[in-house]
Amino acid sequence: MVENPFRLVELSDENSTRNHLSISILCNEPIQQSEYDQFIRYCRLLCKESGELDSISEFELRYRSDQAVQWYTRPSGFPSKLVNKICRTENPRSIWKIRYFLKHLHEQLSQIYRRSLFWLPKSVTVYRGQTLSPREFQQLVQCNKKNILTTTYLSTTSAYETAAAFADCDIQSRQSLSKDQISIIFRITLRTKHTRSRPFAYIQEYSHVRDEKEILISIGTIFSCVDICERGINFYEISLIHDQYEEEMEKKIQYEAIKSYGNNARVTIGDFLMSMNIPSLLDDDFYDRSLISLVEQYSQRNLKNIADLEYRLMNMLNLPVGVNPDHLVIWLDHHIGKNDDYIDLKRTLENAIDLDLGEPFPYSEIDALILCKQTHELRERPLIPVTTINECLELIDLYRHKKIFLITSGSLGQNLVPYVLNSGRDLKKIFIFCVHMCSHIDWAMDFAEQLLMFDFQTHLFQRITYEIGMYYQNQALYFSVANQHRKALCCLYYCQNMIMRANHLFGSPTTYPLTTIEQYIEREKSELPPDDTESLSALVERSSAIACNS
How far is CA 134 from CA 113, 182, 226, 230, in A? Predict the structure, then answer.
């Protein structure tokens, strides 16, 4: 059993706000020569009777600062279990003794997060499964509709089934398999452009356990607990969200910590750390800075420029002229097509296939507008659900200028697919999504070249995201042959984004290769006029510098 990794955010609790700020400082303060030795000594002291001394010796021999994530995910449990155990105490003095590893882990997570901003959609949903004692669960219930924060680094996954396994529950029977524990699956929604102070990262490529599709969330990340839903016998699903509001809450906590000193602008970082019983090097300029200036620096960090890199690249190249994203998914289903049903399911797919580079809709608007019949009048969305064949045909005709990918249930598809294909309507791909595929094999075999069948949503979502990417790759090849290399490059960026999302967002074991796409991108860059190539390189360098300073 894993202990509850959350606690309630209490702005009036001086100790809590100061502890929170101290962790931010420890993760960002300059590296000191003594940190490594202190970390090793402290680990040996705590582990002298736990059988982990061999792991510590191996760490001494093999560890490098750019391998923090890899070491964190090692099956041996060192150093992750010890680090999280210490962090869970929220004792700044103890956490200070392991800052050597925390700094490296924070820096690598930040780097991975910055690199992923180029392909991440506006929001992602990840899952965490664990068991809690009835007492701990009741404590968590008290946090419903309130703000909570992580007291440890939080391991999550993009695969719901993986989370269910960690929660020790049976999805089909909807019950916990543990006799004395409560099975919990946390459904965590992260707005990807509002996590700059506490980064998260898809660490599959860096992890020792790659099949878990792990996403690691930073210690101290703030969430709103929006819902606790009973899914079965001793089996609950808890919905958490981190958005702009939660990012603003981070700033409030830091300022509350300063207010506890009476808003004294002369209080330095060194003064603050010493008051927390944390030693500091008084001859270092970092510790002589005013505490409030550091908090203001944190609050002014802005990754929006980095997140908008693709937009600026295309704008610099006079793009997108004629290459705005033009794909559309129409989903025909008696149940999924209803406005108020399966909203999370549809939102997951819409976020994955949305290539719009503008600001995301706030959740309040999405709740009201997502996938409704009139949505396209406000802004053309990449996904529109319908419940009847007539509605579907009307949309296919209305959006005939777009490249349409059709999802349909088996029962409706049996009547729709033959009619659509025989009528000459142009669809890029048809996907049959049904529980009992064997019931539809006979009629579907007549159209085997035009459609694909799925009985599991994550496999469907991954494949449709990939197919949209392949559409833009084909568009890029067309533009390249026509010597329109700017447009070709734009389409290749779209393709690259979609394949990265297909590989990371849905927890599927299938991984699509990117080598060919990367080669095409380099080829199209080489075909650009010299002035454009120089400007492109300069822009990437400037963006990289911004990322490193954020």
Answer: 35, 6, 20, 14
Largest CA distance in the chain: 80
The per-residue pLDDT for 372 is 43
* 333 close to 409: Cβ distance less than 8 angstroms: yes
Q: Which residue in 436, 325, 423 sits closest to 383, CA to CA?
A: 325
One domain for residues 158 and 12? yes
Q: Is 307 inside a domain boundary? A: no
Compute the distance between CA of residue 286 and CA of residue 207 in angstroms, rounded to an integer. 33
Q: How far apart are CA 90 and CA 87, in angstroms?
A: 5
**Residue 303 Cα distances to 9, 40, 307, 309, angstroms:** 25, 35, 6, 10
* pLDDT profile of the chain (550 residues), mean per 10: 82 86 84 88 88 91 94 91 93 92 94 88 94 93 94 94 93 85 95 78 87 91 95 94 85 81 74 82 74 69 49 48 84 94 92 75 42 47 96 96 96 94 91 90 88 93 98 96 92 94 91 95 88 61 50
pLDDT at position 370? 41
CA–centroid distance for 425 within its chain: 37
Which range of residues forms the domain containing residue 350?
319-536
User: Same domain, yes or no, for 253 and 324?
Assistant: no
Residue 512 lies in a domain: yes
**CB under 8 Å to 455, separation ≥6 — which residues?**
433, 434, 435, 436, 437
* Cα dihedral 351, 353, 357, 361 in deg (nearest 10): -30
Q: Are residues 343 and 479 in the same domain?
A: yes
**Per the structure, how many domains does the chain have?**
2
- In 10 A of CB 352, how many CB atoms? 24
Locate 437 and state its tokens: 């595929």
62 exposure class (CB count in 10 Å sphere: 0-12, 13-18, 19+): exposed
- Among 545, 423, 514, which Cα is nearest to 205's? 514
Rounded Cα–Cα distance for residues 156 and 507 (Å):
11
Question: Same domain, yes or no, for 399 and 516?
Answer: yes
Domain boundary among 268, 287, 306: 268
Same-domain status, 174 and 254: yes
Predicted TM-score (pTM) of this structure: 0.86
Lookup result for tokens 């995910």: 73
CB 221 within 8 A of CB 152: no
Instruction: Give the integer Cα–Cα distance in Å for 503 and 509.
Output: 9
Residue 222 sits in a domain whose CATH number is 3.90.176.10
- Decide: 132 and 184 in contact? Cβ < 8 Å: yes
Among candidate residues 323, 400, 332, the one with its CA nearest the CA of residue 355: 323
Token pair in block for residue 431: 């996907």
Q: Is residue 480 part of a domain?
A: yes
